[in-house]
C-alpha cells in the first residue's frame, strides 16, 4: 500500500500545476477578455442558434484567402453561451477550460514520450507562459488549436488512427494552418509503415469534418476549392528568396516568445544591448540543445512535428502572427522539459528560474481593459437615445466591427434595421427616421461620411451628441431644411 502511494508522488505536483493553470486562465476573465469584432460576430451567430434556432454549417471567415472555416467552434461555444444566459463570458470560460486541459495533456504526452519529471516540468512551464495564457482567456477559434494539435500527436503515438482523423477534422475547422498537421500525420504513418490504416484516418476525418462537409457537398465545395487554390497557386504561398529566413524566424520566435517572454518586434529597439544578447543567446542555445537531446531520444514523431511545421511555414509569404504557432504551442515546452531533465540539478535550477520569470509576466498585473463591460455600456447608452424606436446604425472605426454593439442591441430586443440598396428596397422601407452613429475615433464628422450605413440613410442633420468613455454617440435624422 505504501509503495502504491509512493508511485503516485506525481499527482500532488500535477494537481498544483492544474490549479495554478486554472487560476491564471479564469481569474477575472470578464475584465480581461478580448471582446472586439470577431468575438461579437461569433456570439451573435451562436445567440441566434440558441434563441432563434438558426443552426449553421458555416464557420467564421479565415483571416486570409477569402474562404470560410467550418462551424465546429460555434458548437463548442453554444452550451457555454447558453449556460451563462447569453453572457459572452461563457465561451471565454470554455476556452480557458480547454487551456487547462491542454496543460494536463502536456503532462500526459511528456510523461508518455519521456518521463513523469519531463511531463511535470513541461506542464508547469506551459501553465505559466504569458503568451499561452493570453490566448487562453478569450473566445476565439484559433485558441483551441493547441489542444487539438497535441491530442492529435497523442493519438498518433498511441496508434489511435480513427481518433487522430477526428482531431484533424476538428482542427481544420478551427484554423486553416492546421493543414500542416495533415503532413505530420502522413509522414508519421509512412515512417511507421501504417499507411494501410490510412482508411481509419480518413474515416475519422470525415466524422470530425462532417458539419462543414455537409455544407461543402450541398454547395459544390466552394471553400475547399478556394483553399486548394490558396495553398497551391496563391501569391501568399510557394518557394521564395526568404524561405530559410522565415524558417529561422519561426524557430526563434516560437521558442523565444513561448518560453522566454521574448518581446515582439516593436519593442526590440527599446531594449539594452545586454538584454538583446541574453534573449538571443538563451533562445538559440535552447533550440539547438533541446533538438540535440530529442535526436538522442529518437522520438521521431516529435521531430516530424517540429520539422514539418517549421519547413511548411517557410513557404508562407504573409505575416506570421504569434497565434499561428498554436499548432506547435506545446512542443517547445516538451523539448525544454527534456533538456532540463538531462541537465539534472542545473536543469532544476533553470526550470525554477524560468517558472518565476514567467510568473512575473502574468496578464493581470495591470488593470483590466473591461472591453466587454465597455461595449455593453456603450450599446445600452446608444439604445437609450434611440428611445425605443426603430433605428438604423453605423459604426465609424479604424478597425473594429459593429457586431460588438449589434449583439447587445439584439439582447435588448431592439436590433437596428439594416439599410438595403435600392434594387432590393426601391421604396426605402429599410430606412428609418433616425440613424444612431457610434464613433470610436478621436475626431469624428458623421455628416457626409462615405460609410454605406450613413450614405444610405440620405441627407441628414445631427439632433444629439453624447460623450461616452472611449466613444462619441450621434443621433441623426433626415434633413428638413429651413
UniProtKB/TrEMBL annotation:
Top-level taxon: Bacteria
Record carries keyword GTP-binding: no
Coiled-coil residue spans: none
GO process terms (BP): lipopolysaccharide biosynthetic process
Pfam family, one: PMT_2
Any one cellular-component term (Gene Ontology): plasma membrane
Keywords linked to the UniProt accession: Cell membrane, Glycosyltransferase, Membrane, Transferase, Transmembrane, Transmembrane helix
GO MF annotation list: pentosyltransferase activity
Record localization: Cell membrane
InterPro entries: LipidA_mod_glycosyltrf_83, RgtA/B/C-like
Residue ranges crossing the lipid bilayer per the database entry: 12-35, 55-76, 88-110, 140-156, 163-191, 197-217, 276-295, 300-317, 323-340, 345-361
Domain Glycosyltransferase RgtA/B/C/D-like residues, every copy: 93-199
UniProt membrane topology term: Multi-pass membrane protein
The UniProt record lists the keyword Cell membrane: yes
PANTHER family the UniProt entry points to: MANNOSYLTRANSFERASE YKCB-RELATED, MEMBRANE PROTEIN
Protein name, per record: Glycosyltransferase RgtA/B/C/D-like domain-containing protein
Source organism (scientific name): Candidatus Gottesmanbacteria bacterium RIFOXYB1_FULL_47_11
Amino acid at each position: 500500500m505504501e509503495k502504491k502511494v509512493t508511485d503516485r508522488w506525481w499527482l500532488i505536483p500535477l494537481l498544483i500545476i492544474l490549479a495554478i493553470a486554472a487560476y491564471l486562465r479564469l481569474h477575472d476573465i470578464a475584465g480581461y477578455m478580448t471582446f472586439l469584432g470577431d468575438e461579437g460576430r461569433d456570439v451573435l451567430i451562436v445567440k441566434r442558434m440558441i434563441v432563434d434556432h438558426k443552426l449553421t454549417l458555416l464557420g467564421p471567415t479565415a483571416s486570409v484567402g477569402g474562404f470560410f472555416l467550418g462551424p465546429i467552434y460555434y458548437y463548442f461555444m453554444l452550451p457555454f453561451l447558453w449556460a451563462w444566459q447569453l453572457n459572452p463570458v461563457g465561451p471565454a470560460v470554455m476556452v480557458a477550460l480547454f487551456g487547462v486541459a491542454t496543460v494536463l495533456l502536456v503532462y500526459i504526452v511528456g510523461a508518455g514520450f519521456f518521463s513523469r519529471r519531463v511531463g511535470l516540468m513541461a506542464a508547469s512551464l506551459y501553465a505559466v507562459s504569458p503568451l499561452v495564457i493570453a490566448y487562453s482567456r478569450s473566445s476565439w477559434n484559433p485558441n483551441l488549436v493547441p489542444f487539438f494539435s497535441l491530442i492529435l500527436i497523442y493519438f498518433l503515438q498511441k496508434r489511435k488512427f480513427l481518433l487522430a482523423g477526428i482531431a484533424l477534422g476538428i482542427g481544420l475547422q478551427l484554423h486553416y494552418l492546421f493543414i500542416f498537421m495533415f503532413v505530420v500525420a502522413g509522414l508519421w504513418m509512412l515512417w511507421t509503415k501504417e499507411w494501410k490504416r490510412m482508411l481509419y484516418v480518413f474515416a475519422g476525418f470525415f466524422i470530425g469534418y462532417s458539419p462543414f462537409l455537409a455544407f461543402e457537398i450541398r454547395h459544390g465545395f466552394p471553400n475547399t476549392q478556394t483553399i486548394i487554390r490558396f495553398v497551391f497557386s496563391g501569391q501568399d504561398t510557394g518557394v521564395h528568396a526568404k524561405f530559410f529566413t522565415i524558417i529561422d524566424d519561426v524557430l526563434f520566435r516560437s521558442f523565444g516568445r513561448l518560453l522566454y517572454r521574448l518581446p515582439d518586434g516593436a519593442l526590440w529597439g527599446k531594449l539594452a544591448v545586454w538584454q538583446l544578447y541574453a534573449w538571443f543567446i538563451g533562445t538559440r542555445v535552447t533550440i539547438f540543445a533541446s533538438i540535440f537531446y530529442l535526436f538522442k531520444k529518437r522520438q521521431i514523431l516529435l521531430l516530424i512535428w517540429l520539422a514539418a511545421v517549421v519547413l511548411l511555414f517557410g513557404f508562407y509569404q504573409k505575416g506570421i502572427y504569434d497565434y499561428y504557432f498554436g499548432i506547435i504551442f506545446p512542443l517547445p515546452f516538451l523539448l525544454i522539459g527534456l533538456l532540463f531533465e538531462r541537465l539534472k540539478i542545473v536543469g532544476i535550477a533553470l526550470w525554477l528560474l524560468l517558472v518565476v520569470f514567467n510568473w512575473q509576466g502574468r496578464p493581470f498585473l495591470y488593470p483590466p481593459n473591461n472591453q466587454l463591460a465597455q461595449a455593453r455600456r456603450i450599446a445600452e447608452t446608444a439604445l437609450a437615445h434611440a428611445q425605443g424606436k426603430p433605428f438604423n446604425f453605423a459604426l465609424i472605426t479604424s478597425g473594429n466591427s459593429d457586431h460588438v454593439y449589434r449583439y447587445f442591441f439584439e439582447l435588448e430586443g431592439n436590433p437596428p434595421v439594416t439599410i438595403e440598396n435600392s434594387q432590393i428596397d426601391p421604396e426605402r422601407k429599410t430606412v428609418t427616421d433616425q440613424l444612431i452613429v457610434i464613433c470610436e475615433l478621436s475626431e469624428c464628422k458623421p455628416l457626409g461620411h462615405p460609410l454605406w450605413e450613413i450614405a444610405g440613410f440620405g441627407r441628414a442633420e445631427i439632433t444629439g451628441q453624447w460623450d461616452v468613455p472611449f466613444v462619441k454617440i450621434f443621433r441623426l435624422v433626415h434633413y428638413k431644411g429651413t
